[in-house]
Structure formats: structure tokens, C-alpha cells
Amino acid sequence: MLTVAGMGPASLALMTPMAREAIEQADVLVGGRRHLAQFSDFAGERRALDADIPGLLRWLGEQQERNVVVLASGDPLFYGIGKTVVAHFGIAQVRIIPGISAVQYLCAKTGIDMNDIWLTSAHGRAVDFDALARSPKSALVTDARCGPREIAVELAARGQGKRLLVIGENLAMDNERIHWLPACEVTAQYDMNVVVILDER
């Protein structure tokens, strides 16, 4: 069986019991080095998830008789590896175990409701800053190329320097920090983060 299990933002405490059970029953655990390091007592085979996704998919196709769990940051289908695995193998061949996304976690910590929020990602993709500027409320996962400072610069260039950025840094980790800043004041670099953009309040 091939399972893609959501890890949540970072802490094992935020993983669902279903995901934990799948890992306990796995023959093989696939994930980023940071994820695999959290399962030091796992006795089965480990495989690091790297940038060679085609190679990973070929290898997964050869593991039909084994119980393989692929670990995904946050929720597997929120800009995660789950989409790629389902597209390749089909949902009939893949079990997806959802997880708490970093956006959900940040909204829960800050009391920001998600009813009317536009969810997107800057992780490894081009950001439509015009659409971001038009949206009254949005949230996005960032990467090293496009983080809070770059987002703030693009908003300011579109006359929206007073938009409020809620920056969740190192969420669910011991060094978690949450910053509320207008775009015009975002000048620092931030560690692994998620951003919610709100209209001026």
C-alpha cells in the first residue's frame, strides 16, 4: 500500500492518530531529512525525499508489495507531494491521510477565520502579485526565493504598503514567532514561514 501522510506544520503532537498508525505499520518511510529525523525509533527502511521526483515515482512504482508511507509537510494536498503522487498513480492506488496545514495552524494561533481566505503558495512557483493585491484576504506558503520581504515590496509597489502581514515563523517549533506588521515595515528576513495578508485595520 502507498500512503501519503500529512505531518502537520512541524510538531509530532499535531499529527493525527491515523498518520501515526500508518507510520507504525510501514515497511518503508519516505520523507525529507528533517521529517525522517523525528522517527529515530523507526525500524524499517528509510528513503530521503529529494528534488528527483521522477526518480521517486519510479521507485515507488517498484514497491507495490511493500507498505510505503511518504511523509508530507502540513497537508499532502495543499501544495504538497500528495498531488503529484495521486496524479501519477491514481487515487485508487494511494491513501491520503490529511494533516494540519501551516496556514490552518497560523490562523488558529491568531484567531483569523478562514471562511473567505484565498489560499495560494509561493513555494517553487511564480506568484501572481496582482491577484494577491486584489484579494482582500489571502494566505500563502513562502520559500527562500519569495518570502515576506519580497511580498511586502510587491504590495508596496502596487500602492498597498499599509496592508497587514501576519508572518508565522518556525510554526509549531520551540522558536516559533508570529509578527503583525504593515507591508511597509517588513524589512527583515524570516525563517521558514507562512504569511497571511489582510486589509488595513
UniProtKB/TrEMBL annotation:
UniProt pathway: Cofactor biosynthesis; adenosylcobalamin biosynthesis
Domain of life: Bacteria
Keywords in alphabetical order: Cobalamin biosynthesis, Methyltransferase, S-adenosyl-L-methionine, Transferase
Domain Tetrapyrrole methylase as annotated: residue spans: 1-178
GO biological process terms on file: cobalamin biosynthetic process; methylation
MF-aspect GO terms: protein methyltransferase activity
Gene3D superfamilies: Cobalt-precorrin-4 Transmethylase, Domain 1 (3.40.1010.10), Methyltransferase, Cobalt-precorrin-4 Transmethylase, Domain 2 (3.30.950.10)
Enzyme Commission number, as recorded: 2.1.1.-
NCBIfam families in UniProt: CbiE
InterPro entries attached to this UniProt entry: 4pyrrol_Mease (IPR000878), 4pyrrol_Methylase_sf (IPR035996), 4pyrrole_Mease_sub1 (IPR014777), 4pyrrole_Mease_sub2 (IPR014776), CbiE (IPR012818), Cobalamin_biosynth_MTase (IPR050714)
EC primary class: transferase
Name the record gives this protein: Putative cobalt-precorrin-6Y C(5)-methyltransferase
SUPFAM superfamilies given in the database record: Tetrapyrrole methylase
